[in-house]
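To assess whether the prediction recovers the assembly geometry, we first specified each molecular entity separately, as shown.
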Amino acid sequence: MSAILTYLPHLLQGLLVTLQVAAGSFVIGLLIAIVAVFGWNFGPRPLRWFISGYVTVVRGLPELLIIFLVFYGGTVLLSGAFGTYVEVNALTAGICALSVVAGAYLTEILRGALLTVPQGQWEAATSLGLSRMTAFRDVVLPQMLAYAVPGLGNQWLVILKESALVSIIGLEELMRKGVVAAGATHSPMTFYLTVGALYVAITGVSTLIIGAADRRAARGR
Amino acid sequence: MSPDIFIKATPIVLQGLQLTLIITICSFVLGQILALPLGLARQANSPLLRWPAAIYTFLIRGSPLLVQLFIIYYGLGQIPAVRNSILWPILREPLYCGIIAIALNSAAYMAEVVAGALRRVPKGQTEACISLGISRRHRFTDVLLPQVYREQLPNIGNEIILVLKSSSLASAITIMEITGVARAFTARTFAPFEVFITAGILYLAIGFAFTFLFRLLERRYGITGTRTPAPEASA
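The predicted structure of the complete assembly is given in tokenized form:
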């Protein structure tokens, strides 16, 4: 018990990094998805092929493999560019990799949500003289996001848990701090259970917030 | 990128194929077996069954698989009772730990799917069975379960892809499956793109093979017109 208290500040620091990774990847992934959904619906055919290829391929690959590809691949690219060994920052690599993954899943979620926005909304917006871009951004997108809240929330939970994989490339987030503490104290069970409990705590709180957000987004529907 | 290294990477990455398939198939099957009682417990009338199942799925679905894997592989060994038990020869092996952890994880997600499907079976069916004098056991094995599993085939097909992807985590506990050998080979050759892309293609190929297999099963056994939408992504 006292060992947990000694390491608790470290674990909480790691928790902050975990939240950073998850939030960063979620936001970037969401931006990717919004652009991808727009492109999927209005882009030229090759762009549609590219987006649907991106979604299919990324969803079929293990997240860990993508993290390794970005981390080791980025290191090789940077080292080549600078002529000496440059290791990619694990935080950057983690956020990049998880953003790409989240982007693919979020594209699917938003595509589904877009279908639930009535066609009449598009027609009304364009007949009022809004351009397709403005109609998407100001009329359809907000409604689409409101419909997508449960899916987006679920993806947030998935990213929170996936962020633990970034510990494998050495990022000092919650999981990694747990591994270090477990090694230093020779009590892996204690620390992995503590780390697990902290993850359950954040996903539990997130679930409550998502529920509230969904009830709010569904007002008047 | 050189085609040379692609050619060299292929046999290396293929070395991990067998372990990836073993982990995927064993965890998937074990997970499915565990999911049924768990799903039934989630739907049970007795709170003594319902609550433990609800807590189990909440804890498993609320924490990362990597943590669960480490609890089983590194954590259990800390407990002397486990080290002295007859299960120790199993729990000492990373391969078995990997399979158990992924199966326990998959079971929690599948239990929700099974519970949801049970909930959707119309009440009239139970009433019809009772009025036809069909025994409880046959009502369960011949009426309820076939519907649940036939309806859920698309979700079950999704789950095996998720288990396939989860199997890559086994590399974190020293198992040399596809991701593990790819990473080790990268460390030696410093050619990450060639190696990881080869590994990625292999994962996609296995995924397509499973998808194809489940399409066949769906065409043969699936209930048409009840195709449920893809489940929420899980990890």
